[in-house]
Design a protein that fits this description.
About 40% of the residues lie in helices and about 15% in strands. It is an alpha/beta fold. The chain has one domain (about 5-210, about 285-365): Rossmann fold (3-Layer(aba) Sandwich), CATH 3.40.50.1820. An 8-stranded mixed sheet has the order 1-2-4-3-5-6-7-8, sandwiched between helices. The chain has a two-stranded antiparallel ribbon with strand order 9-10. It is globular and about 65 Å long. The two termini are about 30 Å apart.
Length: about 375
Amino acid sequence: MAVKDNFKRQALLSDLGISPFKERIPWIGPDLQTLRDTFASDELPDVNSSEIRINVPPLKSRKTGGGSLVAYLDKPSSSLRINGLVLLLHGLGGSTRRRGLTRMASALVQSNFAVLKLNLRGSDPCRNYVDGTYAAECNSDLVPVLKRSREISYQLTNDYNCSKNIPLFGAGISLGGTILLNACMSDESLLDGLVCISSPLDLNECSSSIERPRNFIYQKWLLNRLIRQTLEDPFGIEETEKNALVINKKDKKRKINDIRSFDNFITAPRWGYENVEEYYAKASPFFSLINNEKPIPKTLFIQSVDDPWVPFLAAERLMEKMKLSKDQNFNKFIFTEKGGHNGFHGVQGCWGDQVVSKWFLSLKTI
């Protein structure tokens, strides 16, 4: 990365009042940064939380079904001040129970944001309320969620006696950022600002990365979670899906043995794509963004160069392209040499959580 570009990123951090990222012992290296939240937890303050259900239509491959997504609204403890509402999305195989998400939500609440933590279709907390599973592009689910979020922001404006409507922001961890980007490209006014943390922009590139031998254990863990979520669907699954998911008794093998084959047999057909190639091509926000096909709200991309799951190259190419367009005034990029995949565990806690909170506060003042 060029010195000039690195200087600009450091200037952005300085404007936000944040020091450059530095790893914290013992979480040194990309894998320990990535896995820290699996091994360690943080004590978080109690939160005022309430459950909200949002109706969504059937999958594109089905005429019936659908149901409700489950979200949890966390409010600031102070009844005198609110800086906005943040819709927060988890990543692949995750849910609102994941430690990284709950910690980020807590950091935002401590900065006087309300946070709506969404469980995507098929994740554990809403498994009994809606059929199927989610995808990198699931706008038929996300647009209703975003519209409901805007309604909630209006209600919070009244509850906190604000003189003007509070902003609605979005934050997506890993694939959650990809999902929010795709939804916003259908209508940029759905959000007033967005942060994508370690988010895949090119799904094919990301799939190839996770298939590397060094990532064998990561892929096996993710795949097992996806298979379990799919098989546990109380609404049932198609026979062809079941045959692909279960181990064949004769040869002791199954058709699905990596993320790409899961997307080919399950995700792509469920969301109206002919195969995994079409799904990856059309659901990757990189291609629409690089061609300036669709505008997006003010967005901050946070990406580590040593991320073992998501290559930073697509984000870097997007940054270079946006330098030549009007988007350079609204969309920002922060690359760190270290940090792993949505790690960023620094000497003063989670550096990524701090950046997200400060970025939204900066947008509020614009």
